[in-house]
Amino acid sequence: MSDLPSNIGAWQRSYAEIDNKDFGSANFASGSKFKFENAILLRVLYSKALVCPESLKEWINDRQMFPAARQSQAEAAVMGQHYEPLLRIVKKPSKNWTLDDFINSGSFGPFLSLLALIERNNTDEEEESAVRYVTTPVVARTRLQQPRRDPFVIPIKKSTGQLDFAGTLAGEMDLGMPSTTESAELPLSAEESVSRYERARIKVQDEQTVNQCLINLLLPISWPLGISGNVDPQRKAYIFVLQDTKAYEARVDGVITHPNNKNDILGFLEVKRGHRTNEVRIQEVAQMVAFMYSKNKDPLRIDDNASALQRSWLISMCANELFITIASCNRPWMEFLGTGEGLQEGMPELKPENFLHMKEYGPYLLSNYHGLLAALKHLHILLHPIS
After folding, report:
1. What secondary structure letter does DSSP report for 3?
2. Radius of gyration in angstroms for the set of CA atoms belonging to the chain, rounded to a whole number
3. What is the pLDDT of residue 298?
4. DSSP count for the chain of H helices, then E strands
5. Which is nearest to 204 in space by CA: 86, 324, 116, 127?
6. Disulfide engineering: 323 pairs with which of 11, 143, 287, 362, CB 3.0-4.6 Å?
7. What does the pLDDT read at residue 154?
8. What residue spans define the domains of the chain?
9. Is 139 helix (H, G, I), strand (E, B) or coil?
10. Are 274 and 283 in contact (CB under 8 A)?
11. Mean pLDDT of the chain
């Protein structure tokens, strides 16, 4: 899939190639089925800024969201005692992380443990089983569906009189542990059980592992700020309405609320089990459009005194990499969403304020010391806004 246009000239070229330019008849279907041409019709410009792990002194170039004073505060906080064990451990290659490292990292232990599972899956010797992008249907990720059997739940066979705990465990987890009566009779200590679990070949079969890993990173970041409960992992649906009819529904994997106002949602979370692709970006465009639309409810009745610039952001975790995307729009784009007028009559003469601007920063490689340090600084500010 082609890259989304990053400027008006590129957008005009993409727009000229679209056969059906009737905004009102666009078949959006759902956020997960959003297409490249849908993003063009909705006037989205998307740019990417590479975050180099070694460029620790380079902050996201957005002085409104990352002012100099807040940068200094984040610098001091991240180099403090709370993060010291985590950063010290991440200086080691992930393949050398141990159970003691998870314990010694304190509140970041669950994050580090899950990241190790993701890392070992991505660096598995079986190259043909590399992680790929997979679109998970919305219905498959709801609580109404019967959960997939946990590969670590040992099935009990009624036909046998005795449960071979060690043999079944070895078969399920491919530990290379011989199935003998001696091993079955010897109970495993807690440390041995965890150690064998870590050595197992963990295959990330869905997005839950990545989702839990991201949540377990964000929560301990908020605690030193005196914030509790503003990281909500529940999947929330946002609806984009076109001409009084639901155009599509987009679900996100979590939301971040303002620490002083739980009804003020600052940004949202999205996770994928595979590495980042343009298909993922297209889906996030659908989510951001619906999210920005929902924040303003009725674009045609925006208060005249409302801020001229609407801003929001999303945090994405794709496998072991984190991305931050900042979105901004002006009132003309919000008013356009309420009518859809202007695209049916030839090439429109548009200005920057007629577009939704999305800028992606990343990747932050979370298993790399420099990548994690940069991510912690930026997340520290996003989780604790100025006002």
Report:
1. P
2. 24
3. 53
4. 13, 9
5. 116
6. 362
7. 44
8. 8-73+208-382, 149-202
9. helix
10. no
11. 75
Residue-wise pLDDT for 358-375, tens only, equals 999 989 999 999 999 999
End-to-end CA distance of the chain: 39
Task: Quote the CA–CA distance of 198 and 175 in Å, as a whole number.
Answer: 10
CB 221 within 8 A of CB 379: yes
Task: For residue 250, give both structure tokens.
Answer: 């987009």
Residue 132, judged by CB atoms within 10 A of its CB (0-12, 13-18, 19+), counts as exposed
- C-alpha triplet 232, 248, 262: angle, nearest 5°: 25
What is the reported pTM? 0.75
Q: Which residue ranges of the chain lie beneath pLDDT 70? A: 1, 20-29, 31, 52-59, 61, 122-206, 225-229, 243, 297-307, 339-348, 385-387
pLDDT value at residue 6: 95
Side chain identity, residue 346: G
DSSP string, 141-162: GSTTSPPPPPTTSPPPPTT-SS
Is residue 233 reached through a cis peptide bond, with omega within 30 degrees of 0 on the bond before it? no
